[in-house]
Amino acid sequence: MFPILNIGPLALQTSGLLILAGIWLGITISEKSLPKITRLISASNLYNLVFLSLLAGLIGGRFIFVLLHPEAFRGNWISAFIPNTQMFDVSGGLIIALIAALVYSQQKHLPFWATLDSLTPMLAVISIFIGLANLASGNAYGTPTNLPWGIELWGATRHPTQIYHILSAMVILWLIIPGKTIHPYPSGIRFLIFLSCTSFILLLIDTFHGEGALILDRFRQVQLFALVILGISVHQIFKRKNAVSGEAQNAST
Amino acid sequence: MNWIIRHFTPISILSIIFSILWIGLTSFLLPLPVHQSASAPRAGFSAPDFSLPDLQGSSLQLGDLKGKVVILNFWASWCSPCKAEMPAFQSVYSQWKEEGIEIVAVNTTSQDSLAGIQSFVSSYQLSFPILLDSDGSVNQLYRVQALPTTFLIDRQGMIREVIIGGPVPEASLIQKVEMLIKE
């Protein structure tokens, strides 16, 4: 565990730095992979889409926080503009970031599925860095175990769930990263395979997480959510494959 | 990826059946996530207990504050973000003390001077307990790696949030305190 990086008087949170590094490396890999994934999106569109969404997410997360907790700012509205990570609504920020991405894609007429495909290598890299960030901060820790590969964390020998996450995310990256040749996949398949693999892995790893909410006092919320996402992504893969094979049949007749 | 696409139908059917079975079996056979009874300096765990002397020489034990919402702040008089956030802590303490809020400010005395601490406390007119961690043992117990570090502890003595660094804005502090008080 290495939660803080002290540089002189500055104490930087390693997890935040790792996420930033993941975004930077991810977008670089997405850009390099772009010619092998789709020719419908330019590198500049890809960069603009990511940075606009990030910016909108950051501002939106703060805006939603202020809307949800107006009493905290009564008589002190200036503090709504203080740069600080504490006053941030994560789900609100994500929704605003998604809306900004959709609006930008619509304005630039970016094809929906091809855009998601082009972002997939970046998402896969970020997933690895989320695991590294959790390992550095000690978050997403595992349940106690007697297994020989258990790690000492928070006063017990625990499942190294962060390492499970990193290794499986690396395998997923290897699966979805484009090879030397361009394969005629229907657009969206790369993203949907990433989504289904990630949901499946999350569903397995969450079994060993030491924290998390329950549904009906029995079922892990994350596992059920991952199962729903897995079902939706598998259904979409069949739909995309059938749509493309139908188009091919029509073209040949 | 080619292999997955070629064999997608059996892979997808097997993975969904396996997932349902896995959730069903592990939910009943393996331990579920519960609030940790063990103490550790992180959210979701019981706050490690300690006892330290205050500026007047009398001792304060953290465990004695169970039943109150506790803001445990680690600080030093030379630390700029600590200076910036102390007025917010004092303001919250004045407003919420009657509602059951306690602020415990642990000074990292092993890296500070008594004169500096006293001048700091009087210049910010701090009325909450200032504890002196002369040998750094409580800083070690809470694995404090950066100043300031703040722990929000609920009425049951569980750590609910750890804020590394600062300054913590007053608005953010009020929002967190209100949430814990209302529980």
Label this structure with key terms.
heterodimer; A: 253 residues; mainly alpha; B: 183 residues; alpha/beta; Glutaredoxin; 5-stranded mixed β-sheet; two-stranded antiparallel sheet; 7 strands; 19% strand
In whole angstroms, the N-to-C terminal distance of chain B is 49 Å
Silhouette of chain A: globular
CATH fold-type name of the largest domain in chain B: Glutaredoxin
Main β-sheet of chain A: number of strands, strand sense, barrel status? 2 strands, antiparallel
Task: State the secondary-structure class of chain A.
Answer: mainly alpha
Strand content of chain A: 5-15%
Number of domains of chain A: 2
Characterise this structure.
- The complex is a heterodimer of chains A (253) and B (183).
- With 253 residues, chain A is mainly α.
- Chain A folds into two domains: 174 residues, no CATH class; 69 residues, no CATH class.
- Chain A is built from seven helices and six strands; from the N terminus they run ββααααββααββα.
- In chain A, helix 1 packs antiparallel against helix 2, helix 4 packs antiparallel against helix 5 and helix 5 runs antiparallel to helix 6.
- Chain A starts with a strand and ends with a helix.
- The mean pLDDT of chain A is 88.
- Chain B is an alpha/beta fold and 183 residues long.
- Chain B has two domains: 32 residues; 132 residues, 3-Layer(aba) Sandwich (Glutaredoxin), CATH 3.40.30.
- Helix content of chain B is 39%, strand content 19%.
- Chain B contains six helices and seven strands, in the order ααβββαβαβαββα.
- In chain B, a hairpin with a 5-residue loop joins strand 1 and strand 2.
- The model of chain B has no long low-confidence stretch (mean pLDDT 90).
- The chains are: A mainly alpha (253), B alpha/beta (183).
- Chains A and B meet through helix 6, strand 6 and helix 7 of A and helix 1, helix 2 and helix 6 of B.
